Amino acid sequence: MFRNIFSVLIGILISFIEILFSIKYIKKGFINIQSISIIDLKSIFYYAPDKFFIILFIFYIFSTFLGCILTAFFVKKAKKAYAMLTGFILFIFSFIHIFIYTFPLWFRFSILTIFFPFSYLSGEFVEFLQKKKWIK
After folding, report:
1. Which of 1, 27, 20 is nearest to 67 (CA)?
2. Cα separation, 77 vs 121, whole angstroms
3. Residue 18 to residues 11, 43, 45: CA-CA distances in angstroms?
4. Chain mean pLDDT for the chain
5. CA atoms of 111 and 19, how far apart (whole Å)
6. Rounded to whole angstroms, what are the CA distances from 75 to 80, 83, 123, 133?
7. DSSP labels, 26-44
8. How confident is the model at residue 39 (pLDDT cuts 50, 70, 90)?
9. Single pTM value for the model
10. Is the dihedral of CA 2, 17, 73, 114 positive or negative?
11. Cα gap 120→83, rounded to integer Å
12. pLDDT at 12 over 90
């Protein structure tokens, strides 16, 4: 039981860390928002161009996929279920995050649709690798 809780927490933590570092990394690529600190996310999202959000969307997908793969890798049984649980928790946090900060409307709708499919695919991916005996 503690192994499953620990693996879900690891998946969520890795996803959060990757999202925060991706915002910091993407911010460096855009000249017009260089002077804004990472702490003041509201102004970053307000002044950012559309390319910023497209790249951030890709990083959200990758962080969800990676966090759910780590969760599915560490649990013993029900890999898809725990990956979906991790995706659901990430969905809840992003839902809260979307209403706190200013995002474009297209980004709000598109970001909420990525968590469940990619968390399911990551659980399926780990089960496929274990079925082929590529990982134990």
Report:
1. 20
2. 16
3. 11, 20, 17
4. 83
5. 13
6. 10, 9, 10, 16
7. HHHH-GGGTTS-SS-HHHH
8. low
9. 0.81
10. positive
11. 7
12. yes
| pLDDT band at residue 36 using 50, 70 and 90 as cut-offs | low
* CA 6 remoteness from chain centre: 18
d(CA 121, CA 36): 36
pLDDT at 26: 78
Q: Name residue, tokens 């959060």.
A: 16
Beta strands in 1-136 (DSSP E): none
Coil, strand or helix at 5? helix
| pLDDT higher than threshold 90 for residue 88 | yes
